[in-house]
Amino acid sequence: MTVEAISGNIKEQSSLGANRVLEVKDLRISYETPRGLVRAVSGVSFFLKRGERLGLVGESGSGKSTTALSLMRLLGPPAIIEGGQVLLEGKDLLKLSEEQMRRARFADIALIPQGAMNSLNPVMKVGEQLRDTMRAHAFNEAQSALNARIEDVLDWVDLTSDIMDAYPHELSGGMKQRVCIAMAILLRPKVIIADEPTSALDVVVQRQVMETLRRVQNDIDASVILVGHDMGLMAQCVDRIGVMYGGKLVEVSPVRDIFKNPQHPYTQMLIASLPNLESKEVFQGIPGLTPSLLNPPSGCMFHPRCPQIMAHCEVDVPTLNEIKPDRWVACHLYDDKVA
Amino acid sequence: MQLLEAQHVTRVFGGGVLNKRQTVAVDDVSLLITEDKPTITAIAGESGSGKTTLARLLLGMIQPSQGTIRFRGQVLADMSRQDRRNFRRQVQAIFQDPFEVYNPFYKVDQVLTTPIRKFKLANSPAEAERRIEESLQMAGLRPEETLGRYPHQLSGGQRQRIMVARALLLNPKIILADEPVSMVDASLRATILESLLKLKRELGISLVYITHDLTTAYQVSENIYVLYRGSVAEVGSVDKVIKEPLHPYTQLLVRSIPLPDPDLHWGSEGDLERKNQTAKGVGSEQRGCKFADRCPFVMPECRQSPPPLYRTNDDRAVACFLYKENEEISGQAMAETLAA
Ligand SMILES: Nc1ncnc2c1ncn2[C@@H]1O[C@H](COP(=O)(O)OP(=O)(O)OP(=O)(O)O)[C@@H](O)[C@H]1O
Ligand SMILES: Nc1ncnc2c1ncn2[C@@H]1O[C@H](COP(=O)(O)OP(=O)(O)OP(=O)(O)O)[C@@H](O)[C@H]1O
Ligand SMILES: [Mg+2]
Ligand SMILES: [Mg+2]
Predict the structure, then answer these.
(1) In CATH, what number is assigned to the domain containing residue A40?
(2) Total domain count for chain B?
(3) Each residue of B108-134: pLDDT tens digit?
(4) CB pairs under 8 A between A and B
(5) pTM for this prediction
(6) Which range of residues forms the domain containing residue A227?
(7) Helix (H/G/I), strand (E/B), else coil: B294
(8) What ipTM is given for this predicted complex?
(9) How many angstroms does the Cα of residue B49 sit away from the middle of ligand 2?
């Protein structure tokens, strides 16, 4: 199936899907380097339902953060957005002017970036950083009114207002992470993207942070894209999961199906590699290296490492198809399931 | 022969003119790694419980306020330049924050070529190149797509793996790894941990594995230290501590592991203190057990004095008055028992 056919497919569905708050279509992003183009994201399409939590997982270096940053249009040179659409309630963010996009950030779509807690300004008090974010969005309210709004938001994330006078280094990792969540929800965006929001936190605080995020999301009726590697966290927190490999989505399915009945061989191996508390010293990594994005393999990106490889996998690029209701897979094993 | 040893080490931050508030980041911790028996020792515990501070103490990057750190019997602070150089070679670190350690203005190659030059690890440029490529591959990286790049041109997990490659390159006696795989996917995590295990088995390299991931801690390590606000809450063989935790804090931690199964509910028993106290209130004035305020089993004596370690099993000790019928043991004696 061609790319046009996929986008056609998605278009067809959007008539059923007025409840889709975000639709990404055939997104393509490369980085220019002296050795050539790094094809970080090559033809990613997915949608996000209203109120939904979508997990984005996959190999390190597979393009998750690049995708997240591009949805916010935060990628500068040497990144090139070569094509695609990012439709937020039907409006293509990639077509907005810089000024329009600046207004949309935080207000319509917000990002908690990877390593966010280290991105707080170390010499600026937390309250000042929150006020700055609001001022940047033309909330020309009096200081006292701004503070009142900020206190509300801090309250949502279970922080007391006295932390406004604290510098970031005076806060624990979990508290800094909640400040970042507060910043992201300050303007009640429709979509919140969280890139590895808990990877530096202990499991007790992880649970607190995720419960905070979930509660706030419900309160402001937002949708969430959760990027991360912690499959335990994903199992507990999201509704559907998209699996990335080599700059492409290889599978998008409801969370239970990903864990109980993965379809793509990469997903299957990823799930099989999860450690558990029953066995010791048995590690099932996937043999072989991450695919080159400078000289990507022909055909399916996963074919050099795939245990179920067939002859045409080396030649034909598989496309993401809905092989069963709500189950999208890009793999030739399921070619017969595609109408 | 003792390789790396911390004896009753305490480190206090602040309390000076500028920063009056004191933080006891590490509070009377002892740890021992011997030369004859390579081991993997996990260190787990809350964010802010002193894990990174302990690693920095063991690396000689900061000095203990009390207690001593020794390498092969020598106190770090008293080492000659020659010995210090040897120490820097034999004790390697994989730092927690791959966003912080890199100099943004240098290509990542520098992280790998500097130690080769400094410790004369290669006889020719060709050999240097070969060793660098080997170590990158062991960390699951493609040399041709890693070398020549600046830190911001790599993904989070790629940056983290360069630190792993650097530690592998140096072939030390011991590696202190602070969250070495927190940003890589499960399959790569398995591959990297497998190579660290192989280092232990084949080259006798010991590892101190600092992590929030109790499942992988259970899988790779022999012993584990669970820290709570700088103190050892529970220490012992990983099988006992993770499978049958005794300290109420360890029990909370183990219950909180998010399991990769959507049908199992992420334990939530309302013990999450909501409104977090700011870092300010948490001070040294507290007299009793540091966990008392959160502990479901708190008893009056818990507020009187800090609990000593009670040896509940041959290979485990718990700092909790619930186990006071057991014999007391000093942290150092326990560390020696585990290392034997
Ligand atoms: N500025 C850049 N120049 C060249 N290549 C880049 C640049 N930034 C990222 N890349 C490459 O693009 C690919 C995708 O990176 P990205 O950060 O999106 O991965 P990721 O899926 O978020 O990985 P991780 O899970 O490790 O965070 C990687 O192979 C990375 O090396
Ligand atoms: N240079 C410093 N000055 C003042 N306080 C410090 C300093 N370094 C660490 N601390 C404090 O010491 C305590 C322990 O910090 P440390 O970084 O060792 O924790 P950690 O266990 O590594 O946490 P995490 O799991 O979040 O990495 C914290 O309260 C921290 O704020
Ligand atoms: Mg990333
Ligand atoms: Mg740390």
Answers:
(1) 3.40.50.300
(2) 1
(3) 899 999 989 988 889 999 999 999 999
(4) 205
(5) 0.89
(6) 22-337
(7) helix
(8) 0.86
(9) 7
